[in-house]
């Protein structure tokens, strides 16, 4: 009898809970949809068909790109839309009714998803707790740090990386306990790589716990790790290429005179900002990835080419596979102009999902402040402003030297053949 009474009480409690839940959902705003793909406008950025409705996930949570900044977020179905102006720390629930029958509880969250913030370790008195020295190899930026207590690792700072990565050749240097696998797409192709969910990382006196990472195969010799913006999402990052320091802070504490400000949007924590690309005689604005991990000037992805239908409008030098080597007549970043950049563009008929990006041959000509808290990036030209990048004139010179070398080689071979022929004739 006692057990029966307990079961009855539990059943009544569950029924009351379900009734309250149903009534709560009935009070939520509802938008209609007849297709499962939803577009989202987060601030100024419109991402088309990026949200797939899932009947099995309740609530299905969308995290705002810049949680601390008040932003207008709009969900757009093929039949309806709804907007909220978000405030940091709050959530906003609504229902998407698919085909008039499936109710999708959806939540917009102005919070960070799985935020990792560093703690400050003891440091020498001469070194500021938020200042990390770095060094350069080619155009890339590197730190020295430790993983799981194993010291003196070489760590690349790559704002184009969506997750912390460990080189396959460096796994023996740190006590990494792999406990899963992640699909990784990079220059080594698409592979299912081993991952580790809990690691301890230290760089320049800053310490992170429970850092997830994935093992990859395409790092260069001497590169142990890659870290990106996933470790700094609630921070302001200042990089000074002239002083070779990176400063982390919670607010901007310096005079911004001489800096140009740009709005930033993010893709998997990776910052993008708008630049202008000239093709022919026309300028095309587009958000390019701010990729400090690329040792090159830029890359034209399917996204930019498809947006404006430019594949047959590029000044092409030659083609190979599904790519073209092209000349970009002009790149404008604020009031800074880069002329005749030689780069590669992928044929959109053979999509590879690579985003358009700017690499370090361009980016390290600017000291920058990335304000992740407010979705802004500040750029200031530095002393490397006129350093070489892949310009067309340089390409033409190299091509001319190659042609001269080939002609010279052919003439030499012809001379040897003729000399051999004459020697045979004289011996007859």
TrEMBL record:
The chain crosses the membrane at residues 397-415. Keywords: Membrane, Signal, Transmembrane, Transmembrane helix. The keyword Methyltransferase does not apply. SUPFAM superfamilies: Acid proteases. The keyword Transmembrane applies. Residues 1-20 form the signal peptide. It comes from the Bacteria. This is Aspartyl protease. It comes from Sphingobacterium ginsenosidimutans. The lineage of its organism: Bacteria, Pseudomonadati, Bacteroidota, Sphingobacteriia, Sphingobacteriales.
